[in-house]
Amino acid sequence: MIIKKRLATGALGLLAALACGLISPPAAMAGEPAPDSPKVELVLDVSGSMRARDVDGDTRMAAAKQAFNEVLDATPEEVRLGIRTLGAKYPGKDRKAGCQDSERLYPVGQVDRTEAKAAVATLRPTGWTPIGLALRGASKDLSGGEGTRRIVLITDGEDSCGLPDPCDVARELAAQGTHLVVDTLGLTLDRKVREQLSCIAEATGGTYTAIQHRDQLSSRIKQLVRRSADTPVETPTPVRGAAQCAKAPYLGSGLYSDRESFGEHRWYRMRVAPGQELRASASVAVDRAVDPDYGVLVRAVTPGGRELVRGSEAGGGRTDVISSGLRYPVADVDDDEEVTARTVCVELSQSFSAPASVKRTPGLPVELAVDVVDNDDPPADVAAFGLGRGWVLLGVLTVGGLLVGLLWGWLARWRVTVWRSN
Which interval of the chain is the signal sequence (predicted)? Predict the structure, then answer.
């Protein structure tokens, strides 16, 4: 009996200590990212060419270190982040040894900022540039879990090893279907480097960015890390829109991916029944250099060509993605009318353009989200233009306000009359 009392007392004391914060809860209870949290690995080129002093008067390596420190401070709590290097260890001329030089600098997981920054501080520009090998290593570092996976490759040169070819590795990773995207950042404007990094990014649905300034490097990496936290885990279904509505594919509710050439129009079809609402949104990603003015348009149109509703967005300057969307409710029918779903054509077009030196194929990555839901809007007599379809509500408010004003005026006059009579 005494032992049981002591155990009970001990248990109560432990619960009290936990409640008061005297005993730290297990890591999983202390905010450790869940197994399906997004994962990001930063892959940094530490080859000898990173000694070049052409980023705002400092070396490429110094700019990368500063950017990494700022990114580590800004990493969202839900993101598991790691760092891998290439060319950081072997300084010699033996090609075979140099092309095996890639290692994990900081494991993918919840970020210990002090530890990660200390690891980054030890880096010195050293060896070769085995990009293909590093991409395969990063893919293994990110394995496991059900969340999205993103590799951010920062380099100032093309692969110096040849095998495995980085573009082939990127295609392998894309074929695995594991939500893996590779974004590439080039610290040089060299044409061959741009072509190789663009190829890697395009193969996985990622983006390529040419970096010229320190602040641009930090800002872009932060943006990509944050984007990984916002990206849905759902894998888009590949689809190919048609050049006209009559030949467009029918889509069900879901997430779809397509590619659209500069200035192209793509059509898709949905079936929407009375009492339902069509919701569609489209995002066009910019994975190559484009001209500074652009826009995207999403329209819902009848098969006969009559426009029902549209959504558009435009911008200027540098961007990574631009989105627009629309909602189109179909009025319900009377009980004695036949309920038949009607076809609605959805058109997606964009006004991106680019210099002649920029590749036109494949087209820009497009993500299309469509859904058909039951229309829960208020009845037609009290819902429409802002206050809705029915000026009934406006009339009621106006008449009600007038009556209240008249009544208040009559009461005021009555009070004055009574006061004077007394």
Answer: 1-30
